[in-house]
Design brief:
The protein is an all-alpha fold. It contains 7 helices and no strands. Helix content is 86%, strand content 0%.
């Protein structure tokens, strides 16, 4: 092959090679695009999370209002516990079975401690213990006392009615303490939330105890009367 042909062949081969797309360049380009997409997605997610966090926080000017509402609700349950204490005395006197009397007596002592715990909550909030009349608990207690009039004394049927009446109070308190504990956490009052959680657990256990008592003995005995 003469020199002209060799030169022509070389130029043709060089042109052919230059026409081929660079695998390396394509890979780099793809990597760059992937990186840009990842950064874009990351920024979008970060922005989205930030937006959600901002929405989750209540406005500072409303923090005072929320705390004021929280304190009023603490006063509400403080009143409710004192009323429940009075009602427990009547229910214990009216109960027939020794097991039910003992259960009510134990919960009476527990309720006294729960009242003291609420007074600790007031102290943590920088407030003096105060009651706010609670129509809800008064209605439940009044309903419970009416069953004493509708049932005969020294019967298991009355014990059934007393258990139901007490559980209505427990369910009211469980709802109240559960909601207040979560609200305390929202306000950043972790010490208050822990105290409320302690009472919440006690109320739940009392409810279970009353259910067990009804299922294992009282309900069955009442069917024989």
């Amino acid at each position: 092959m003469d020199s002209k042909k060799q030169t022509a062949h070389g130029q043709t081969q060089e042109k052919s090679n230059s026409d081929k797309p660079s695998t390396k360049n394509k890979s780099q380009e793809k990597s760059t695009k992937v990186g840009e997409t990842t950064r874009t997605d990351s920024k979008a997610k970060t922005g989205s999370n930030s937006g959600r966090q901002q929405k989750a926080r209540f406005h500072e000017k409303n923090e005072g209002k929320l705390k004021e509402f929280f304190i009023e609700e603490i006063k509400d349950i403080y009143f409710a516990e004192h009323e429940a204490l009075k009602a427990l005395t009547k229910m214990e006197d009216a109960a027939t079975s020794a097991a039910l009397k003992e259960s009510i007596s134990q919960h009476y002592a527990e309720t006294e401690e729960q009242i003291k715990r609420l007074e600790e909550v007031f102290a943590l909030l920088g407030e003096k213990p105060a009651k706010k009349k609670c129509e809800g608990i008064l209605g439940i207690i009044k309903d419970g006392e009416s069953v004493l009039e509708d049932t005969d004394s020294e019967t298991m049927v009355r014990d059934v009615a007393i258990i139901i009446a007490n559980q209505k109070v427990e369910h009211y308190e469980i709802t109240s303490y559960g909601s207040l504990a979560e609200l305390a956490r929202t306000l950043g009052l972790e010490d208050v939330a822990e105290l409320l959680d302690l009472t919440l657990d006690e109320e739940k256990k009392t409810d279970v105890t009353l259910t067990t008592l009804a299922v294992e003995s009282v309900n069955e005995e009442a069917t024989k009367e």
